[in-house]
Design brief:
This is Pyrimidine 5-nucleotidase. The chain is of the alpha/beta class and 247 residues long. It is built from ten helices and eight strands.
Length: 247
């Protein structure tokens, strides 16, 4: 999953990983939220303060970890080991042949396929291996915990970094699917041409330590855009027919 070695003018399809390549019904976000909350408590914060900071940092920085590294001198790799790294992913998600077939049916003469995640590399690669998609991903853009003040979705600089890493200069050639509406709207705002919100409406996910029912409502103040909502990734065949092989 390395960077391209030469200019490549194909379209590029960006897939988010967590709660997109697998269903929110796996409850991975819940398990992660519990571990992050425990990490806050390990910093000798009382439960109420820990809960408030968990939500505040997630809301303000996009990831609780970014607040922890800025304000509590936390080692991000220690956080990764105790939170993402301790998740029993093999017991929570599994290979889905129909998902692999979806990736195989993307016409690689027209498009490259990359993953774009707010997780660290080790977690992202672990999920892709379990789902048996790692050999179908051309590249991976992740949050580099080793970089001071690293960026993440939905910050515009993260999308710009992703394009640079993938060697693409025309944002209109970017296709993107993510379960987080803020991330999708941000991609639209930087000119990504074909954005889809993966929305398992009615299910629950944990964000910032709070249980949230998934819905398809746009964030307050979000610009009007042409985002399409899908409830399964298989719907991408109808939404983006131009990137798939002719049947």
């Amino acid at each position: 999953m390395g960077e391209p070695s030469r200019a490549d003018d194909r379209l590029i399809v960006w897939f988010d990983i967590d709660n997109t390549l697998y269903s929110a019904s796996s409850n991975i976000s819940h398990a992660m939220g519990i571990r992050i909350q425990a990490y806050f408590l390990s910093l000798d914060l009382d439960p109420e303060e820990a809960s408030e900071l968990h939500l505040k940092y997630y809301t303000q920085y996009g990831l609780a970890l970014r607040g922890l590294t800025r304000h509590h001198d936390v080692d991000p790799l220690d956080f990764d080991r105790k939170c993402d790294g301790s998740l029993p992913l093999e017991d929570m998600i599994s290979y889905d042949p129909s998902l692999r077939k979806l990736f195989e049916d993307i016409d690689r003469t027209k498009a490259r396929v990359w993953a774009l995640t707010n997780a660290y590399r080790t977690h992202a690669e672990r999920v892709l291996r379990i789902l048996k998609l790692d050999d179908l991903i051309d590249g991976l853009v992740y949050c580099d915990y080793l970089v001071k003040d690293f960026s993440c979705k939905p910050e515009p600089v993260f999308y710009e970094m992703a394009m640079k890493q993938a060697g693409i200069t025309d944002p209109s050639k970017c296709y993107f699917v993510d379960d987080n509406r803020k991330n999708v709207d941000a991609a639209c705002s930087v000119g990504w041409g074909h954005c889809v919100h993966f929305c398992e409406k009615g299910l629950e996910a944990m964000e910032g330590g709070r249980i949230k029912q998934i819905d398809d409502e746009r964030e307050p103040g979000a610009v009007d855009n042409s985002v399409v909502d899908v409830t399964t990734l298989q719907e991408l065949r109808q939404v983006w027919p131009e990137i798939f092989k002719a049947s």
